């Protein structure tokens, strides 16, 4: 759901609004080398890794009359540069972003198919890790399952990612506006996961993973770490704050990177299983619209699927109902009314099922909402009749 960097994302900012210190910080972050320049006036920067290309003259500040001209020339040179880092610098200038960087030590992938698989593995794990960071901003849990999933994935549409070079390196640019909480939470959770892993490996105890839940560690984050470490000789995850915005409150200005290795896998796998096993079911009272009905025979209990309106942080749930409650749910669906049901939201299956469903009650809605529900029913009438007929 995040998107690769394109030309629009790397658009040139207005030189008149550009802070030279921010440009210098981004150049240093992305491997450009400072080679000197007029003392106190400007610095000369060359592309990383000894790559060829035009060097940049970047003023120290805007005190001198030619500062604006030098900045405009530096931006134009970045736009022309063939160095991959040049585009990343422009992205950081265009949208104030915190950066999350993943590095994996993996053996040579051999043919192109091996590289493609490694790239997909890295991208998938990185995406899952960002989602885990967002989940932690909605509340603490060892296992979220389907809870908050759409909200957590929603901000990924604004996240930009560079190329996953041979499945070894990937950088995500998370806009400060809308994404900083997720990155700050992820940074804390990664260090807590590292500490908990060290404790488990030293003592065999899992207590540190239990305590780490309050710092944002969860099943989803641990699974992302497992996916990163699997088939790798080691992984390194670094967070860099937007130089224009600085570090968020309570976070170090320069967070230390976090590293994991294959030797950490047993501890991480035990933690992932423990989080699922220990997360309790929840008593809920859910209001939702019936979108599916099914039972084995006419008369008797059945199962309904609800699109959740309120009462649970998931999109849909399945509810097993007795005969009378099932009948009420079916009638409410026919007249276009949501229902309210009481039960327990089970962690097994990702919090997508309510057990002990009872007290099914139709809920009145305003005319506009009722018309919308009836229209939806009419569009799916054949399916509804099939679900309620003799062949159920």
Describe the structure.
With 392 residues, the protein is of the alpha+beta class. It folds into three domains: 3-93, no CATH class; 97-278, no CATH class; 282-388, DNA polymerase B, N domain, beta-barrel (OB fold (Dihydrolipoamide Acetyltransferase, E2P)), CATH 2.40.50. It is built from twelve helices and 14 strands. The chain has helices at residues 20-29, 67-80, 84-94, 112-135, 149-154, 176-203, 207-212, 219-229, 265-278, 323-334, 367-379, 381-388, and strands at 3-4, 33-34, 42-46, 56-59, 97-105, 160-161, 169-175, 234-240, 258-260, 282-294, 302-310, 316-321, 339-346, 353-362. It has a six-stranded mixed beta sheet with strand order 1-6-7-5-8-9, sandwiched between helices. A five-stranded mixed beta barrel has the order 10-11-12-14-13. Helix 4 (112-135) packs across helix 6 (176-203) and helix 4 (112-135) runs antiparallel to helix 8 (219-229). It is elongated and about 85 Å long. The protein starts with a strand and ends with a helix. Residues 380-392 have low confidence and may be disordered.
Secondary structure elements and their pairing?
Layout lengths: L2 E2 L15 H10 L3 E2 L7 E5 L9 E4 L7 H14 L3 H11 L2 E9 L6 H24 L13 H6 L5 E2 L7 E7 H28 L3 H6 L6 H11 L4 E7 L17 E3 L4 H14 L3 E13 L7 E9 L5 E6 L1 H12 L4 E8 L6 E10 L4 H13 L1 H8 L4
Helix pairs in contact: 1-3, 4-6, 4-8, 8-9
Content-based structural category: alpha+beta
Q: What is the distance, rounded to the nearest whole angstrom, between the alpha carbons of the first and last residues?
A: 37 Å
In spatial order, strands of the major sheet run 1-6-7-5-8-9
How large is the count of helical segments? 12
How confident overall, as mean pLDDT? 86
Estimate what percentage of residues fall within beta strands.
15-25%
Q: How many separate structural domains?
A: 3
Major sheet, described briefly?
A: 6 strands, mixed
Helix content: 40-55%
Can you tell me the overall shape? elongated
Number of strands: 14
**C-alpha Rg, in Å?**
27 Å
String of helices and strands: EHEEEHHEHHEEHHHEEHEEEHEEHH
Q: Low-confidence stretches at least 5 residues in length (pLDDT < 50)?
A: 380-392
